[in-house]
Amino acid sequence: MKVWLITCPKQRQRKKGAKKRMLRISTGEDIETMIFRLEGELSGEWVTELKNCWRAAAALEPPKYVRVDLTEVTFIDAKGKDLLALMYRHGAKFVARDVLTKGVVEEIERDYNRPVVCSAESRSFVDEG
Length: 129
Description:
By secondary structure, the chain is an alpha/beta fold. About 30% of the residues lie in helices and about 30% in strands. It is built from three helices and five strands; from the N terminus they run E-E-E-H-E-H-E-H. Strand 2 (about 20-30) and strand 3 form a beta hairpin. Helix 2 packs across helix 3. The radius of gyration is 15 Å and the shape is globular.
């Protein structure tokens, strides 16, 4: 299993006692499924990092299925939701446990179709924004 621990490289002014924001991305796979396990906040610069990890993993050997485990995600911003929607349109399935992540997943499944699917032969994704 590969693990990326991502923290914002920029030093920001923080209020005393404020938490350091981060996202941990762990990847694993079984026979036909690439699994992304996210822990922390899917927001800001971390959205780009997840997108890069997803594309890098698919470029090496496109998986038949992609599963994104959101059970340890504490916050998802609009850009994070957009990326999850793009992943969904490419066939990703989600695992959600709490009200926040279940709500986001339900919105994505309701609002987005799955017309764009990455073929194993093309090894590329359509960038929708």
